[in-house]
Amino acid sequence: MSFQVKSGYIPFTQETVVHFLVQHNFIDPSAPLLVKEIGDGNLNYVFQVQNKATEESWIVKQALPYAKVVGESWPLTLDRSRIESEALKQAHSLVPEFSPIVYLHDSEKAATVMEDLSSHTILRKGLIEGRVYPELAKNVGTYLAHTLFFTSDYGLGSAKKKELAKRFSNPDLCGITESLVFSDPFYNAESNAFTEELRPDVEILWEDQDFLTEVASLKHSFLTKGEALIHGDLHTGSLFVTARSTKVIDPEFAFYGPVGFDIGAFIANLALSILSQEAHRTEEEKDGYLAYLFGVITEVWHVFESTFRSLWDTYLSEDNLYSRSYLDIYLHSIFVDSIGFSGCKIIRRTIGLAHVEEIETITDPVTKLAIERKALHLGKKLILKRKNIDSIEDYIEMIQEVL
Ligand code: SR1
Ligand code: MG
Questions:
Q1: Separation CA 258–CA 265 (nearest Å)
Q2: pLDDT, tens digit, for every residue of 80-119?
Q3: Range of the structural domain that residue 208 is part of
Q4: Do residues 329 and 230 share a domain?
Q5: Quick check: is 4 in a domain?
Q6: 263 lines ligand 1 (CB under 6 A)
Q7: Quick one: which of 346, 341, 344, 343 has its CA closest to 382?
């Protein structure tokens, strides 16, 4: 094994995760328990432990010293578990209504005990089933504005921001994003995964120098724009939802990065959901559901923007150089970044290592291929035209053009 772990680290089993909770006084050793490993992500173990007598329940998330999706050949720091627990606590301090409660983090075991949200559904799955979440856009827009504003120079002040940034240096997980979002999908990398029928379309991307230059510029923004503490992986699998409640989970990719990266990730995954709906909805259902999804994209941006503006008006820390006209310029730069990052995200989920369930589960190969082609086309267009897209309504139009 090429990875190193602390001496007290052992991956949990269903038995040892119970010992861990007993040791930390969460449960009594004699309690009647139901223990399940429920992790379906790419990187970690997730155990749900329920006390059948009291109906209390906990989630124990443990990092593995390698990427579960690839295996031991891809070592990965266990420190991501600390980063995730600290990012959850940070978010909880700003927007408690949108973040799970962290009860305990054990750095030796790379494990975090947190609130069980199993009354919620993973948003990606809900969207595959055609569910409507009336509060989603408002909640996500508010979450984004608060977490991003209050960890930025504007909301926190430059000295405190630099202090906070030290705790969120996250080179391993940023390295995954740098490779899987900004590099590998744009050349013939071994990690890529796509059907041979898509190769001609993919090769057109790889040969387009103007396009690759724009991707390079977005990658450099990701590497260098340390604007705020971002979630870093805000796709629809990182949101737990009910009709009213929204909880943002899994911030193990958190670091000081570009604000537009979180917004771009969220709207990209909605765009992928939109493209996939022809395989999941009946003809009668489709238009109404697409209108709902378009509405989520539009509203999330408007709520983000208006909330960010009002936080700026009330809490701007220091410097009267930061005028209203500067804010307009800054918000526009966030918008342009969001569009570009969303394009990269759409492409990586189509031809890169990790795909999305709403497209992977399409059983008819002709429909699936057609959707993947649309996704590639959309991603490319968004990256190339991002500086000329003036409003979120224009973004919606660009999705509609490929449908
Ligand atoms: C090796 S991890 C693959 C992907 O899963 C995570 O959710 C991130 O998006 C990462 O890029
Ligand atoms: Mg995740």
A1: 12
A2: 999 999 999 999 999 999 999 999 999 999 999 999 999 9
A3: 121-402
A4: yes
A5: no
A6: no
A7: 343
- Which residue lies with its CA nearest to atom 8 of ligand 1? 233
Residues 161 and 90: their CA atoms lie apart, in Å, by 13
User: Across the chain, how many H-helices and E-strands are there?
Assistant: 15, 12
Q: Which of 232, 109, 249, 234 is nearest to 175 (CA)?
A: 232
> Tokens for 336?
């342009």
Residues 110 and 221 in one domain: no
**6 domain-assigned:** no
How many C-beta neighbours within 10 Å does residue 58 have? 20
Number of residues that make up the chain: 403
Considering the domain architecture, whether residues 294 and 396 belong to the same structural domain is answered as yes
Residue with tokens 């379309």: 201
Rounded to 10 degrees, what is the CA torsion of 23, 29, 32, 34? Answer: 30
Last residue of a domain, one of 86, 115, 144: 115
Q: What CA dihedral angle connects 344, 340, 173 and 220, to 10 degrees?
A: 110
**pTM for the model:** 0.96
pLDDT digits (tens, 9 = 90+) for 114-144: 999 999 999 999 999 999 999 999 999 999 9
Q: Counting ligands in written order, which one lies closest to the CA of residue 252?
A: 2
Measure the N-to-C terminal CA separation of the chain; round to a whole number of Å. Answer: 47
Question: How many angstroms does the Cα of residue 27 sit away from the middle of ligand 1?
Answer: 33
Cβ count near 159 (within 10 Å): 10
Q: How many CB atoms lie within 10 A of CB 71?
A: 9
Find out whether the beta carbon of 193 lies less than 6 Å from any atom of ligand 1.
no
Find the CATH number of the domain harbouring 97.
3.30.200.20
Cα–Cα distance, 239 to 245 (Å, whole number): 10
Instruction: Please tell me the number of the ligand nearest to residue 173's CA.
Output: 1
Please say which residue of 115, 140, 166 terminates a domain.
Answer: 115
The letter for the amino acid at 192 is N
Distance of CA 399 to the CA centre of its chain: 20
260 within domain boundaries: yes
Angle at 352 between CA 205 and CA 365, to 5 degrees: 85
